[in-house]
Amino acid sequence: RKSHNLPGPRGYPLLGNVLDMPRSHVSENFAKLRPKYGDVVYLSVFAQGIVVLNSQKAAMEILGTKGDTSAGRPILTMASELSGYDRFLALHQNGERHRAGRTYLHGAIGPQHAREYASAQEEQVVRFLKKLLDDPENFEEHCKWIVGACILLITYGHNVDDYNDPYIEASSGVMQRFSVAAAPGRWLVDLIPALKHVPTWFPGAHFKKFAALCRVKARQAFEAPFLSVKQQMKDGVARRSLVASYLEASSSLTQEEEEFIMFTMGDLYGAGLHTMSSGISSFFLAMVMNPTAQKKAQAEIDAVCDMQSRLPTFADKSSMPYVEALLWEVLRWGAITPLGLPHRFTQDETYEGLQIKEGMHAFANISAISFDPESYPEPEVFRPERFIGPNPQPDPRKIVFGYGRRLCPGNALAEMTMLIIIARTLATFDIQPRKGEKYSISRTDGVIAHNNPFQVDINVRSGLARDLILGN
Ligand code: HEM
User: Fold this and answer.
1) How many whole angstroms separate alpha carbon 332 and alpha carbon 11?
2) How close is the Cα of 72 to the center of ligand 1, in Å?
3) Where is heme bound in this sequence (predicted)?
4) Mean pLDDT for each 10-residue chunk of the chain (472 residues)?
5) Alpha-carbon torsion 108, 112, 113, 117, what sign?
6) Does 414 contact ligand 1 (Cβ within 6 A)?
7) Helix, strand or coil, per DSSP, at residue 12
């Protein structure tokens, strides 16, 4: 290991800071190290150096401006190499393949292109409103359904009818197996990579069987919708989708190109589903906790849509500044990915005299930065007004979607999808507290944080709103 001068709690030989690592509320506990050690804190776990960035300035400079040196991802022998998940863009190491993937996504769902799918999303959201009308108790399930349906519509032109849609089930299975394969500390082979050479029949080599299963299942899950679009194109019945546009643009694909498009599409589903559904669930929670914000947003939507004579569309965005600010506050307050995804330094780096070494991993403490009281006074209060007026507080989109060469490529799509869902839900429903239920911010740990279960009352606002939902 190279020596460095990074501040952080003293660790034990070999173990490093294993015993100091928080078991829960990881982001909050990392933030507590800031007063003593500063914005950049060093910890080590079994000789793996981890750099936690507790301020926007440090995260922006180290991962953003100087991002070339920190654009790698941790090398996960089990998840990436053996199980084949390195074919997901989120796990690519930086280099040509990663660049090509990002360039493709920028041209397909970047800020200039995501809006091309707005009207398809708007139609889907009406189906979500119907589900809320028929079965308001299960709003959390409907939140997952709508974001999954929007992603599958864009990627494959696939219309999801029900909860047990085969593509959703297959993709969810891939994500579940991925979370097992990538679980930190679960696999000895991640600590001792040479074990990957052990033959499958060797006692204790069950990890190789599991890895092989991951590969087969991922291929099956992503190949089926891809082949289906191919067939639909042959039959002249394919709907507009990312896969169809990709196939249209190239007369014949190499096996490598087919694999690229299959896995990139699969990654979009995995990366978009839980992030956006967590955000939409936070929106419902925020609305019961802050009825004034809800009423203000509804008044703005009613004015734009001529008092419930139509549903809002994405084209109304610039006329709905309060609703847009509400979305930004959902992104900040919802703290969807508390620590983002880890970056890996591929070269030595310095920041304000601190020496960061090649091979170290870096986490931007996104949740702590979004709740930094210096940037966001009373950070736990949901207040869209923060972003309106002559002195707006910092734009949270520069935090919550990560940094530099790893910045979330689905950010424009996520904003558009969430804006349509939020605006149409507020146009038609009142989200009210359930009698006896107490509301607070209470979220799970993990790469993506989810709200602990809560109940709300969801009531259609008027006969006009009901007619808009039912298309009468
Ligand atoms: C509110 C919703 C979302 C949030 C908060 C979010 C957040 C993030 C964050 C923090 C990262 C890691 C950035 C870094 O390493 O610095 C990321 C990466 C990524 N996101 Fe998102 N995301 C969201 C929605 C989406 C959607 C809708 C898609 C695609 C449909 C998507 C696709 C991806 C991909 C492919 C990566 C990996 C990028 C890379 O490694 O180069 N995300 N996202």
Assistant:
1) 33
2) 15
3) 408
4) 85 88 89 96 92 97 91 93 93 93 93 91 95 96 94 92 84 89 85 89 89 95 94 93 91 87 91 94 98 98 94 97 98 95 95 96 97 97 97 98 96 97 98 95 89 96 96 84
5) positive
6) yes
7) strand
ipTM exceeding 0.85, yes/no:
yes
Q: What are the DSSP calls for 374-408, one per residue?
A: TTSSSTTS--GGGGSSSSPPP-THHHHT--GGGS-
E strands within 263-356? 343-344, 349-351, 354-356
Could you tell me the end-to-end alpha-carbon distance of the chain, in angstroms, rounded to an integer?
69
Strands 361-364 and 48-53: parallel
402 Cβ closer than 6 Å to some ligand 1 atom: yes
- The residue type found at 450 is H
- Please answer whether residues 175 and 277 qualify as being in contact, where contact means their C-beta atoms are separated by less than 8 angstroms: no
Residues 6+ apart with CB under 8 A from 419: 314, 317, 323, 324, 327
Local structure of 7: helix, strand or coil = coil
Two tokens at 36?
A: 């003593």
Residue 401 CA, ligand 1 centroid: distance in Å:
6
The label of the residue with tokens 């507290």 reads 433
For the CA of 415, the closest atom of ligand 1 is 1
